[in-house]
Design goal:
heterodimer, A: about 280 residues, alpha/beta, Rossmann fold, 2 domains, 10 helices, about 30% strand, B: about 230 residues, mainly alpha, about 70% helix, globular
Chain lengths: ~280, ~230
């Protein structure tokens, strides 16, 4: 389990997190959402030990992240948004170099994922499009067999069929008990995939709840008129979509974009509802 | 396995770095370093010749060492000291001590490799009787570059190189602070090279050179290790 306790972090004089607490138990796909600059990538880096908290702690299975001990690094893989690849290498050579460090790596899984994502393992990175490079890296990262997979904007550069394949692959991996944390702006790409959802705001965690809890607390109404009590309303073809407090206990279909906007515009109300 | 240093993991890391380095270097200008190697080796002989003035000799040496210290690490480990690009190396499952040792090993191997190429070139040029070329390396019964001060000088250069690479991200920016850091870096290398030469013709010079270069080497090793320990991405 990843545990963050009373964590403070700042870049020189710019505070990013102020006393945040979060935990990521194993076996789920967490969605990490937030506006630009709130610290989504920074949080992933803190979890990996690439950034040092000012105070508080971040542990992965009880090991302090910043120590970056091999035992911890073998359990976690981080795929940043931007990766510099050796032009002359192929995805197969790339995993050949990485795999000796990961006893859980399975070559068959790598080849299977590459096939599913329709990328040739022996083609040079320099001959690939950005999307193909990204797919290769996703396949390589997932085939390492680590317990924790941290993905920063993983769907950037992927075409529409690849996004569907990506969702399908992640679902299978989560079923194997792995923990996946996805930081993204492209919420539509990961809708119906991420659960629980964590929304960050400046210095704080605004929401950390499962989809079930969210739909218990909030009601997503589609196709009606604009409601004055709505936490968020948006005009869609066929009428308004309203996000309101769920007082009747009725079930509804979660819309992550609407949830995100509702949370950002009603920070105090949301805290009260989910307290 | 040890949490600080495990020889198997270290070996695995060295193999990884050896495998991944040529790909980075071959296509980004290692050939320049290779071409420069004989010149650097030969400079050891030029520096001993009386007809060159002190200023010229020292300026050449400072230039060589600085160039070497900056060129080699950026070719062998182009990404380790960088914020975003360094993530791959930082996330490899090995301890910081093992990573530091692996970098040091490859720095040594690279510089030794370059010197070997320089030596081979020297032998070849001597064998073909190139006009004006008179066995720079093989002047005496023993290889001059195996003198202890020279070995330590070379070791100092490895460590300076490693230091330069690990601090590259800090010094390579255009702020006033960055420029001052580059100047400080150059002054430090220059000072450490000049200082032993001051004792060149004095009886105690041999041991002073050894002592200064050994201390400088240890200091730079400590600084670069400290940097690796504290680096964030």
């Amino acid at each position: 389990m990843i545990e963050i306790k009373n964590l403070d972090f700042s870049y020189k004089k710019t505070p990013v997190f102020n006393n945040i607490n979060l935990s990521f138990p194993q076996g789920a796909i967490y969605g990490l959402l937030g506006e630009n600059g709130v610290g989504k990538t920074t949080l992933l880096k803190i979890i990996c030990g690439l950034q040092r908290p000012v105070s508080g702690s971040c542990t992965v299975d009880g090991l302090t992240s910043y120590d970056r001990l091999p035992e911890m690094l073998q359990r976690i893989v981080f795929l940043p948004d931007e990766v510099t690849l050796p032009d002359n290498a192929t995805p197969q050579k790339y995993v050949d170099e990485l795999s000796p460090f990961y006893p859980t790596f399975v070559q068959g899984t790598f080849l299977h994922l590459m096939q599913e994502l329709e990328v040739e393992p022996d083609r040079k990175f320099r001959e690939m499009s950005f999307g193909q490079q990204k797919k290769s890296l996703i396949a390589a990262s997932l085939s390492l067999g680590t317990d924790y997979v941290l993905l920063d904007e993983p769907t950037n550069g992927l075409d529409i069929p690849s996004k569907a394949q990506f969702r399908s692959i992640l679902s299978k991996i989560a079923d194997e008990g792995k923990t996946i944390i996805i930081s993204t702006h492209q919420v539509k790409d990961v809708e119906n995939l991420i659960d629980p959802i964590v929304i960050l705001s400046h210095n704080a965690v605004l929401l950390d709840a499962s989809v079930q809890k969210i739909t218990e607390k909030l009601f997503f109404e589609y196709g009606g008129a604009e409601r004055p009590d709505a936490l968020y309303s948006e005009l869609l073809p066929g009428g308004y979509m309203n996000v309101v407090a769920n007082e009747s206990g009725e079930e509804s279909q979660l819309n992550i974009e609407a949830l995100f906007n509702a949370v950002l515009r009603n920070k105090e109300k949301i805290k009260e509802l989910f307290a | 396995m040890s949490q600080t240093f495990d020889i198997k993991r270290y070996g695995r890391l060295v193999r990884h770095d050896v495998r991944s380095c040529p790909r980075e270097t071959l296509y980004s200008g290692l050939w320049m370093a290779l071409a420069f190697a004989p010149l650097m080796v030969l400079s050891r002989q030029w520096l001993g010749q009386e007809q060159y003035g002190t200023f010229y000799r020292l300026a050449l040496m400072v230039g060589m060492v600085t160039w070497w210290a900056l060129m080699i690490p950026t070719q062998v480990y182009p990404n380790v000291g960088k914020k975003k690009r360094g993530i791959y190396f930082a996330m490899l499952p090995a301890t910081k001590a093992e990573k530091h040792a692996s970098i040091a090993t490859l720095m040594v191997l690279t510089v030794v490799g370059l010197m070997a190429i320089g030596l081979a070139e020297d032998v070849l040029l001597t064998a073909v009787h190139l006009p004006g070329y008179t066995k720079y390396f093989w002047q005496s019964e023993t290889l001059r570059f195996l003198d202890l001060p020279m070995v330590l000088g070379t070791l100092f250069t490895f460590l300076t190189a490693m230091f330069g690479m690990i601090w590259a991200n800090t010094v390579a920016n255009n702020t006033l602070r960055g420029i001052l850091q580059v100047l400080l870096f150059l002054l430090m290398i220059g000072g450490l090279v000049f200082f032993p030469l001051y004792f060149d013709n004095r009886p105690q010079g041999y041991w002073v050179v050894i002592a200064v270069e050994a201390v400088a080497t240890l200091f730079l090793a400590w600084l670069s290790r400290r940097r690796m320990d504290r680096m964030t991405y």
